[in-house]
Every structure is written in structure tokens, then in C-alpha cells.
């Protein structure tokens, strides 16, 4: 088989890249290690920046997103039993939208299959070859049969644990990595959300976040240990932690209990691999960078990367040269580091750290009070949260 762009990974990055290339007349094949049901069922991110919604809309895959997504004009910050609302729309003129990542993935898969374009699930033993040459290739096994795809370009959209970043010689990559001493225990529960907007809470027991997937489905997180044993967290203990951490002084809890239908622990990490290109292999999304989920940026960053990659590859195939491809990594990284900073900042302001002494507590509360009391500080949060401008 031969194609122009071989895309490895059918997450938001790989699937959206395929769609954006299709719109520009560039052929591609998408290879995914897992089966369709697994990819469509994986519960992860839930919040889309305004720019991500606009990108999906322009790509013609946002019909259900506009019908079912929940648009939010603000968010709530809770600490010391107080509640403060940040009016994102009033400050920035933009809003964010709650729509599950797996819904974005389902919409992109349905569109690609409806268009009759190649998307191969359950590709085993995927490997890349000759990435430093102008004729790279991908090999894999499909139902036990060895397959090979010759390409001009390979897009490594295979997430943090994929094979693409690992295929780049270590001497050609610089890695920046920070692992946090805490994690998130996340639940999905059949219960109405605590509030119609997201609540981010700083509490002496640790961080908590109340978000949602619909008007009857709550998604909630509590800070826990990185090696937390889920068996130690009965449903009652989880609800108790959520009631306590999200409490407002003198008011009844807003947390609505319901049947917990999913539980999991998410590690917290900041990671960047530079540059995001080696020869004809380009990395996009989690394959190149990870942010802690506190800023809700992972999926949004993946979308920002593939916007630039699609434009660069389209220019190349249209015979306009490699200048944009050469600039891909630099253009992406400039915005990625700003988003890394924001995600790290939100994380350290809201979580209980290793020190957990009076000093950390007072500095965090002072920062939150400053943030809620200053127009400039609120604008800084709002501008980053709704999404920074794209490089292109
Ligand atoms: P993905 O989604 O991991 O997709 C990579 C795909 O590649 C496949 N793959 C391979 N395919 C072929 N061959 C191989 N050798 C392969 N190895 C792997 C995988 O099966 C998979 O299908 O990466 P992508 O596309 O870069 O997308 C990134 C996002 O998934 C990620 O950044 C977000 O989920 C992060 N994140 C959030 N991001 C947001 O923008 N907003 C949020 O609100 C938000 N909340 C979150 C999050 C992530 C979380 N978890 C579970 C890590 C909340 C949580 C709890
Ligand atoms: C989510 O809805 O899962 C979500 C929202 C905001 C975050 C993280 C996760 O910061």
C-alpha cells in the first residue's frame, strides 16, 4: 500500500489530522492499535476551548457537538468554604464547551467511515522505518497478516505510550519531564451536576473538581496518591470526600449522589519532547507532550498541533516547499509551553503538595484571593482557560 501521509493513532490528534488533510486533498491512512469499541469507550477529557469547537465546526464534524455539547460562560473557584465565579465570557468574549473526548472521537470515526476512507483498527506490532529518508514506511500485522504502507510523511499521533516518539534517536530529542506527587481519582456518576458550571476546589484534604458530561451525568475528581489503591475508596468514601472538599460554609452540599458507573486513577505529569519532528516523522498531541489535567488542555493542545501540521503538509504536497514543515515544531512549541505553564500553575495553586504545611496553605489561599480580587489576574486565568490564540 502507498499513501501520502501514514497516521499512527486514532485519538483526537490522528483522526482530526486525517479530516483536515482530506479537506486539503491529501491522502492518508489511519492505523490504530485498539479496536473501535475500545477507542470510542475510553473516558478522558471533557472540555473544549472555543477554538477547538470552531476547528471541529470548520472541519464539518460538529453537528452533534452543537446539539449535545454544554456551553459554559464561566467557572467556579472554591476555597476556605467560599465560592468565587470567574465570568469567562464577560472577560474574553469566548466560552468553553463540555463534550466528552470519546464523543469527538466517535464523530470523527463515523465521518471517516461514511466517507469510505481508510481507517484500520487492531493494527498489531506497528513499526516505523526509514524515517530519516524521503520514503519512510510503516509495517504492522492485521489478522495475523504482515502489511506494509509506504508514505511520504508519517504522523505520530499515537499518544504518550506510542511507538513514534521512541523511534526517534534519543540523542535527537530533548525531554522535559515533571511527575507530580499526587493523582486524580475520577468517577462518572448517574447524578445531576453539582452546579451548571465547573467547580475547582482547593481544600486542606486535597483538590476536587466537579464537572459533568450531561445534565444527568456527573464527572468528578478528587486528589489522591499516585499509587492509590482503588479498593480503598468505597463509594461512601468518595462521596464523603466530594461533599467535604466542595463544601461552602453554612450552605448545604451541592454534590448530588448517584450510581457510580466508572472509577479510575489518572497520573499527573508535565512532559515535552523537543523537537516534534525527526526527518519525515512528525509528532502531534500526547505523543509529544502531556499536561496535568487541571487546566483541561490535553485534547485542546492535540487539536492545536494538527491544525499546524495539516497546513504544513498541505503546503508541501501542493509543491510549496518545506518551509512550514521546518517551522512546525517551533510554531507548536511556542504555544505548548504557554499551555504547560498554565496547567502547572493551576495544578500547584489547587493541590495539596508534599510540604502540606501552613506556608503552602497560606500562599495558595493568598494567590486565590488575589486572583478573585484582581481584574488583571482574573483576565489572565480566563484568557488561558478559554484558549490562547493559535499560531495558525
Ligand atoms: P490519544 O487520545 O492517547 O490517542 C492516541 C491513539 O494512538 C493509539 N496507539 C497506537 N496506534 C497504533 N500503533 C501504536 N503503536 C499505538 N500506540 C497507541 C492509542 O490506542 C490511541 O487511540 O492521544 P491524542 O490523540 O494525542 O489526544 C490527546 C488526549 O487524549 C489527551 O491529551 C486528553 O485526554 C487529556 N485530558 C484532557 N484534555 C483536554 O483537552 N481537556 C480535558 O478536560 C482533559 N481532561 C484528560 C482529561 C486526560 C485524562 N486522562 C485519563 C489522562 C482528564 C483525564 C482524566
Ligand atoms: C472533564 O470534564 O473531565 C474535565 C474538565 C476540566 C478539567 C479536567 C477534566 O480541568
| Major sheet attributes | 8 strands, mixed
Bound molecules: 8-demethyl-8-dimethylamino-flavin-adenine-dinucleotide, P-hydroxybenzoic acid
The CATH architecture designation of the domain at 5-73 and 95-176 and 270-347 is 3-Layer(bba) Sandwich
Amount of beta strand: 25-35%
Strand order, largest beta sheet: 6-5-14-15-16-13-17-20
Number of helices: 12
Q: Percentage of helical residues?
A: 25-40%
Please, what is the average pLDDT? 97
- Per CATH, the class of the domain at 5-73 and 95-176 and 270-347 reads Alpha Beta
The total count of strands amounts to 20
Overall SS class: alpha+beta
Q: Which shape, going by the Cα principal axes?
A: globular
Low-confidence sequence ranges: none
CATH fold-level name of the domain at 5-73 and 95-176 and 270-347: FAD/NAD(P)-binding domain
CATH-wise, what's the superfamily of the domain at 5-73 and 95-176 and 270-347? FAD/NAD(P)-binding domain
Ends apart, CA distance between termini: 32 Å
Rg result = 21 Å
